[in-house]
Amino acid sequence: MFPISSLFFFFTLLMGSLLSISSSSWFGAWIGLELNLLSFIPLIINKMNPYSSEASLKYFLIQALASTLIILSSSLMIYTSNLTYTLTLMALLLKLGAAPFHLWFPQVMEGLSWMQTIILMTIQKLAPMFLISYLTTSPIIIMIIYISAMLSAYMGAIGGLNIMKLRKIMAFSSINHMSWMLIALTINDTMWMMYFSFYALISSSVVFLFHSFQSNSISDLLNNNHTSLFPTLSVPLSLLSLGGLPPFTGFVPKWLMIQIMLTHNMYIPLFFLLSSALITLYFYLRMLIPYIIILTPIFSFNLKIMSHSSSSSFMPIIIFTNMIGMFIPLLFLLM
C-alpha cells in the first residue's frame, strides 16, 4: 500500500501537468509546471535511499532554472517574439532533459527508485512536450527542435555505451527516444502522442522487470537465477522491443515515423535517428548476449522447476505487450 501522502502528491502532480496542458496563458502553464515540480520532489525523497536527497536537489535546481527562463522570456514578450519563443523553448528542453541540456537527467535517474524513474521518464515529459507543440509555428523554433532532436539521438546513443548501471542505460535510452518524439512533434500532435504512448508502455514494462528482479546493474541482471520460462523470456523481448527491433512492438512507432518522415522529405533528421537507433541496439545486445548465454540451460533442464512469485504472474502480460507488434501488420492486410 502507498502512503496517503504519496497518493496526494501524485494526484497534485497529475493536476499540475493537466493545468499546464490546458492553460490558455503562459502564466497558467508556469503555475502548472511549478505545482508539478513541488509535487514530484516529496515523491522522490526517500530516507532509505542515501542518493535520493542529492537527486531531488539536482532536479529542483534544474527545474527552478528552467522556470526562471520561462518567466524571463515572458517579460521579454513585449519586445521581440523570436527571442521570447527561443528562450521558452530552451527552458522546456531543459525541463525535458533533451540535448544539449541532458547532462542532469542520468544523474537524477541514478538516485531514484525504479518506480520513481517511471514517473520521470513518462509523466514528467507530458507537460513540456505539449507546451513545445504550442510553439511550433515559427521556422526558427522548428529548426532548433530539429537540432535538439539530432543531438539527443546521438547523445542518447553514445552515452549508453560502456555503461553498466541499468538506470543510466534507461536514462540515455530515454534521451534517444526523446529525439523521435521531438521530430514527431514538428509533424503533428497525433504522431508524437502515439510514439509517447508506445514508449511509455514499453519502458514501464522494462522498468517493472528490473524492479521485480531487484537489479541495479548488468551484473545483477546476469546473477539472477530464473527457473521459470516467462521471466527468462521477458527481459530479452522487452529490451529488443525498447530498442525498436522488428517485429516487436517498439518497431511500430518507428516504422510509422520513418514512413511519415520520408513523405515530408526529412532525410537528414531520419539519417541521424536511424544511425543512432543502430547504436542503441548495440548496447541492448551487449546486455542480452551474456544474459542469453548464461541462462540458456534453463530451456533444457530447469523448465520443470517453476517459480510462483508475486511478480511472475505479470510476466505473460509483459511478453504479450512486447510481442503484440507482430500482429499489427495483419490489421493492414485485413483492411
Question: Can you characterise this structure?
Answer:
The structure is a single chain. With 335 residues, the protein is mostly helical. The protein has one domain (4-334). It is 75% helix and 0% strand. It has 16 helices and no strands. The protein is globular and about 65 Å long. It is found in: Mitochondrion inner membrane.
Number of helices: 16
Mean of all residue-level pLDDT scores? 86
Total beta strands? 0
Low-confidence segments: 298-310
* Largest sheet: number of strands, sense, barrel closure: none
Helix content: over 70%
Could you say which structural class the secondary elements and strand pairing correspond to?
mainly alpha
InterPro entries: Complex_I_Subunit_2, NADH_UbQ_OxRdtase_chain2, ND/Mrp_TM
Catalytic activity: a ubiquinone + NADH + 5 H(+)(in) = a ubiquinol + NAD(+) + 4 H(+)(out)
Main location: mitochondrion
Transmembrane segments: 60-79, 85-105, 194-213, 233-256, 268-294, 314-334
Provide a compact summary of the structure:
With 335 residues, this protein is an all-alpha fold. The chain has 16 helices and no strands.
Any key phrases for this structure?
335 residues; mainly alpha; single chain; 16 helices
Give me the secondary-structure topology.
Blueprint: H1 4-22, H2 26-44, H3 52-75, H4 81-96, H5 104-110, H6 114-121, H7 123-133, H8 139-159, H9 166-187, H10 189-213, H11 218-223, H12 229-242, H13 251-263, H14 267-295, H15 315-323, H16 328-334
Helix pairs in contact: 1-2, 1-7, 2-3, 3-4, 3-5, 4-7, 4-8, 5-9, 6-10, 8-9, 8-14, 9-10, 9-14, 10-12, 10-13, 10-15, 12-14, 12-15
